[in-house]
Amino acid sequence: MTVSSRVRRLLPVTDWLLNYRRAYLADDVTAGLITAILLIPQGMAYAMLAGLPPEVGLYASILPPIVYALLGTSRPLSVGPVSVAALLVANALSNVGFTPGDPQYLNDALLLAAMTGGILLLMAVLKLGVLVNFLGHPVLSGFTSGAAVLIIISQLPQLTGIPLPESVSSIEALAFFMLELGQAHAPTLVFGVLSVAVLLTLKTPIGFTLRRLGASAGAAELASRTVPLITLTIATFSAWAFELPALGLAVVGHIPAGMPNLGLGFLDAERAIDLLPAAILIALIGYVESVSVAKVLAYRRRQRIRNNQELIALGGANIAAAVSGGMPVAGGFSRSMVNYAAGARTQLATLVAVVVVALAAMFFTPLFYYLPQTVLAAIIVVAVMPLIDWRGLKRTWRYDKADAAAFLATFFGVLVVDIETGLILGVMVAVGTFLWRSSRPHVAEVGRLPGTEQFRNVCRHETQTWPNLLLLRVDRSLFFANISHVEDLVAETAAERPELQHLVLICSAVNAIDHSAVESLEQLVESLREAGVTLHLAEVKGPVLDRLQRSHLLARLRPGRVFLSAEDAVNTLDRAADDSS
Fold first, then answer.
1. Predicted pLDDT at 46
2. Distance between CA 228 and CA 34 in Å, rounded?
3. What is the mean pLDDT of the chain?
4. Do 123 and 311 touch, CB atoms closer than 8 A?
5. pTM
6. Average pLDDT rounded to a whole number, residues 306-322
7. Which residues, at least 6 apart from 216, have a Cβ–Cβ distance to it below 8 Å?
8. Which pLDDT score is estimated for 513?
9. Band of pLDDT at residue 97, cut at 50, 70 and 90
10. Residue spans per domain, the chain
């Protein structure tokens, strides 16, 4: 590998930068502006969801996206604060004894970001990018759905002014809220409900109306994405003009203007030990969520995502977040989809968004003083509502009840117990289901389709069979957990056929046979021989046959044979039966 190719592999920015076209510029600038307009209110909202000052969300939207733009392999992925990571931060820090507003709370949040980045980089060194494959979609979907409901419940106090009890489950908190609904704070409730209604209903009509009036698709998209910022602006002006804080409406208050200070003052070895489990969870969930979104978008443009490089990019972005006073970051689903839909061609769109966010942090934070916290809560609620994947659950239930059980176990585990338990429970159900299925492999009796050399399941097709010859196809690899089931099926089937002389195991779907299964097959050979039945194998794959030749099975199989195909086995054994008769 040449030096140039190594540099391009380590710094994917060189790949798109060296091949940049002038025609991309307008799309990237437009997408960057649209993403920034969404990112500014979302960044502040997610910071407050994590129990952090709103400026922390802005800081996390400046340096981390720049690092990802240099190192990441996804061109439209938008990296910054995300709802699930914010919830995980709040959950982790509430469990270690500090409350929002405490200086140690912020330090721990920065430490979490640094540890998350370090864990991701360690995973990259150990080539653990394949871990994305071990969280199945039902588990991940159940987790994000449960987390979305948790986030919505957590925002009810900000939306209504009704405080929720601490140290209770989400279900208990929701029940308490329903009982206390009549005690809602009127100005807070009005602002919250109106904000949610506007955010849910106004975006589509604006874009549709502008397109009807002749506006370009890009201009209409830009206008429709300004709804959160417009809502935020109107609410802030109203709170100031009518002096609503005097009536008890909670506002954001003072937000320091300027760029973040770089530093490592948050480092603390003792705190790091306490926060390690939470950091591992944030790293795994953030990585899986980011890569999942990146791959969806990459497929649409026939681009390629490198899992291990994404670990490096996300690890670097989280370390950059910690150093610059930001919270843990990941690839955001909603922002990335907006970035993609707005036409982002490269990560230049991210850099444009960073410039806009930086300008807002330096010059415009005083304008947010009267921003009602209930409006930020509304932005969070509307942003996470699409994460509740009821349609996916319905499709999964229709297709596979076991996968749906993993979804439901994760979802209710997150809601009823806690986030970590819910995820672990979902993984346990998914793994348990896999092991249960693996321990009961499908074994089909097959026969020959008349006039062909094709063999199919006798229960599904009209086939030719032979009284002295039985063909069984094993549809899974054989190992210690399932070989007993196969033995039982073979013994049961053979006992029902007194004329049986030859039994052929068709191994076309067997990719591996472990040592325990080999020993059991040797015992099966002897048991069948005592019953007057000879065991044969057919269609054994080359790698499997190579390993069997290093065992005693093939020697003990004699006079049984290993046939190249089921047709070969039938022709040989049927002819031998005719000759003997």
1. 95
2. 11
3. 89
4. yes
5. 0.83
6. 95
7. none
8. 95
9. low
10. 3-14+22-387, 389-439, 443-580
Query: Hey, what are 247's tokens?
Result: 């009536």
CB burial of residue 268 (10 Å; 0-12, 13-18, 19+): middle
Q: What is the pLDDT of residues 400-417, one digit of tens each?
A: 999 999 999 999 999 988
Are 86 and 344 within 8 A, CB to CB? no
List Cα–Cα distances, 559 to 32, 218, 311, 398, 406, in angstroms: 73, 75, 55, 48, 47
Half-sphere exposure of 505 (CA within 13 A, CB side): 31
- pLDDT given at position 210: 61
CA–CA distance, 86 with 50 (Å, rounded to integer): 5
Q: Read off the DSSP letter of residue 362.
A: I
Q: Are 538 and 505 in contact (CB under 8 A)?
A: yes
Tokens of residue 89, six digits: 């931060």
CA distance 177 to 153: 9
Instruction: Give the pLDDT confidence of 523-561 residue by residue, as tens digits.
Output: 999 999 999 999 999 999 999 999 999 999 999 999 999
What values do phi and psi take at 473, rounded to 5? -105, 125
Token pair of 398 as six digits: 């229709």
Do 361 and 111 form a contact (C-beta atoms < 8 A)? Answer: no
Q: State how beta strands 79-80 and 330-331 pair.
A: antiparallel
State in words which class domain 443-580 has: alpha beta
Enter the DSSP assignment of 538.
Answer: E
Rg (CA), the chain: 31
The tokens for 23 are: 């025609």
Q: Which residue has the tokens 């063909």?
A: 471
Separation between Cα atoms, residue 278 and residue 276, nearest integer Å: 5
DSSP assignment of 429-464, as one string? Answer: HHHHHHHHHHHS--EEEEEEPTTSS-EEETTTS--B
Strands 562-563 and 534-538: parallel
- Secondary structure letter of residue 44 according to DSSP: H
- Name the nearest CA neighbour of 410 among 140, 152, 148: 140
Give the bridge partners for 538, in sequence order: 506, 563
Q: What are phi and psi of 248, to 5 degrees?
A: 100, 5
- How far apart are alpha carbons 61 and 78 in whole angstroms? 10
| Lookup: tokens for 233 | 């602006």
Distance CA 112, CA 93 (A): 9
Please determine, for residue 578, whether its predicted confidence score (pLDDT) is greater than 60. no
